[in-house]
Amino acid sequence: MGIFFIPKATSCILFLFLMSCTCFISTDAYDPLDPNGNITIKWDIISWTPDGYVAAVTMNNFQQYRHIASPGWSLGWTWAKKEVIWSMMGGQTTEQGDCSKFKGTPPHCCKKDPTVVDLLPGTPYNMQIANCCKGGVLSSWAQDPANSVSSFQVSVGRAGTTNKTVKVPKNFTLKAPGPGYTCSPAKIVTPTLFIQADKRRVTQALMTWNVTCTYSQFLAQKTPSCCVSLSSFYNDTIVPCPTCACGCQGNSSQTGTCVNGNTPHLASVVSGQHNVAPLVQCTSHMCPVRIHWHVKLNYKEYWRVKVTITNFNYRMNYSNWNMVVQHPNLDNVTQLFSFNYKSLTPYGTINDTAMLWGFKFYNDFLNQAGPDGNVQSEILFRKDKSTFTFDKGWAFPRRIYFNGDNCVMPPPDAYPWLPNAGFRQEASLLALVMSSLVALAFYAYV
């Protein structure tokens, strides 16, 4: 067999290419714990008008654990022709635009690139449609599927009056309320079927197109938004969140402003701000949210964990929060105290991922930073004796998400270790010394 030689210049190029591949950080929207999660926007034309159509626009959140919190979503697009919006129900555009060319009652919006927001709760009934008027808040699919849908109705003019003359809008954007979502081009699909209230008749949309929007944490924020700290009953070491996990003090471009809890007039400073950028308490990690996992007790057939979620953000009350945990013993959860639990199986039959969230009107509302800015619960696990161990950090989670964002974990070599490992090493060394002394004494005697 001959030997194949690679020229030196070619080998250098290949080496640099491989290095660039290993250093590349993916910015795509694929989530391994929710591989099919997305927000689907469905646009159904339900009737024609003299110069356009009336459409029902429905937004479905098919993400298992990522929701849209207040101040809610905003949906934008660019018209393909010179369309205008004559009227809306269940939603409104943020700007009317220049409607000076129209005589009489002007259209609702004349902008080439309108942005639509949901109406607020308490909107008059004659302006509502089904699944509207929630202030743009969308629950996650696993947590509250009934409230994971939002809708509005729009009457479009100057748009064509048949499915051959209507052009689908372009450049859809979704903010929730900030960046993070990337939307696909609109795709014409099979018209939607509608079952009437008596369930004896089915009607059909005149034309339907879909838009799929997926989330990327990297696009949403340049730094993480949460971190994890660890402790256990068998070790006095408390492993804190990694230093500068979500940015460092003084780097306001990354984390917003850092303030101390005893800052004078802090309440007035917070209430006077309408910025969604975090106003975090000064800490070593600078994260808006910290999750602490404490291995609390060990029984004969069970073991117990205490979980505490602390809010360090003075600008945010996290309502309908949720946490996703990945741990091999989640297939044997026996009891939770003051948290809801739902098993997630992103890998088919492997049950090692769970979603946790608070009870309604009890602890589903996580207050902003301060004395009451935390929620906590305890989890009781049944031991599987074939896999259970406290050794080598097995009792700590592999991954934790908060409100859909991946939290920064401490490095594995910093986890609390069993003291038995040190005792065993010292005991084995002592045994070796004692056996050597006994042997020497024996030979000396002989």
Automatic annotation (TrEMBL):
Location (main, coarse): membrane
InterPro entries recorded: COB_C, COBRA_pln
Signal peptide segment: 1-29
Residue stretches making up the COBRA C-terminal domain: 225-416
Keywords: Glycoprotein, GPI-anchor, Lipoprotein, Membrane, Signal
Superkingdom: Eukaryota
Membrane topology, record value: Lipid-anchor; GPI-anchor
Protein's cellular compartments: Cell membrane
GO biological process: cellulose microfibril organization; plant-type cell wall cellulose biosynthetic process
Coiled coil: none
GO cellular component: plasma membrane; side of membrane
Similarity comment text for this entry: Belongs to the COBRA family.
Protein name listed in UniProt: COBRA-like protein
The organism's taxonomic lineage, starting at the top: Eukaryota, Viridiplantae, Streptophyta, Embryophyta, Tracheophyta
